[in-house]
Design a protein that fits this description.
- Strand 7 and strand 8 form a beta hairpin.
- The protein has two domains: 69 residues, no CATH class; 107 residues, Nucleic acid-binding proteins (OB fold (Dihydrolipoamide Acetyltransferase, E2P)), CATH 2.40.50.140.
- It starts with a helix and ends with a strand.
- A five-stranded mixed beta barrel has the order 6-7-8-10-9. The chain has a three-stranded antiparallel β-sheet with strand order 3-5-4, with no helix packed on it.
- The protein is α+β, with helices and mostly antiparallel strands.
- It contains two helices and twelve strands, in the order αβββββαβββββββ.
- Helix content is 16%, strand content 34%.
């Protein structure tokens, strides 16, 4: 009898074991995934992500949460969004395409891999902290700045070159012609003198030298040359 009782108890345990495992698996499968982190500031946007809009969220100090995603060709992103170096701004979005961006928004596209512009000399100058180097390259305008009116007047804007490095262009408009109608997303080719700084550097002398002592520089925009 004792042997029989042991066999019956063992059978009951074996029958219940799969049910217990199934119940445990069901409990595991019903756990909700952790919600994505709330992003409240541009500085907190993860690498290689872009901002495509804003939505109200009281958890953020200014009351708005940033909506982010991995960029794709043809996305519309907010003007203050970081932009991975393999993408460039194309044109400003209009009307409903601006979406929930608080100010402006721009169409982005993947940069062409067939560019003939070699900006390696700029990268070397930045890496080595070298200044007063004559450089040539091409970049996309990512920010327009007020003119510098201390001394000779300079039109100023920031571009991003293909490597992802940013440059401040300081274009003397007391000597050369201003680029009228310049907008974020425009492509600009340049030739001028590079001066190092920790943000990427400055390119000036984008014009001819009236005294003929300095190498002439220039800017090209929409098929026109400004020097």
């Amino acid at each position: 009898m004792k042997q029989l009782a042991k066999l019956l108890l063992l059978s009951v345990l074996l029958c219940c074991l799969p049910l217990t495992s199934i119940a445990q698996n069901q409990r595991r499968s019903t756990r909700k995934p952790s919600p994505p982190p709330v992003i409240c500031k541009i500085a907190s946007v993860p690498s290689n992500m872009v901002v495509i809009g804003y939505k109200r969220n009281s958890a953020c100090g200014d009351g708005f949460e940033l909506l982010v995603k991995r960029p794709e060709n043809g996305d519309i992103v907010c003007a203050d969004s970081p932009l991975p170096p393999q993408f460039s701004f194309v044109t400003e979005a209009q009307g409903a395409l601006v979406g929930s961006c608080p100010h402006k928004a721009f169409l982005i596209q993947v940069k062409s891999t067939t560019s003939t512009v070699d900006d390696s000399s700029i990268a070397r100058a930045f890496a080595s902290g070298t200044s007063n180097v004559q450089v040539e390259g091409e970049g996309t305008v990512i920010r327009l700045l007020p003119d510098d009116v201390n001394g000779q007047r300079h039109q100023r804007f920031i571009i991003q070159i293909e490597s992802g490095q940013t440059l401040l262009i300081a274009h003397n408009i007391d000597i050369a012609t201003r680029i009228d109608g310049l907008a974020v997303g425009d492509s600009v080719r340049f030739n001028g003198e590079y001066v190092w700084n920790e943000k990427g550097g400055v390119v000036h002398w984008t014009h001819h030298d009236p005294q003929g002592r300095h190498a002439s520089g220039w800017l090209q925009h929409n098929g026109k040359t400004f020097k």
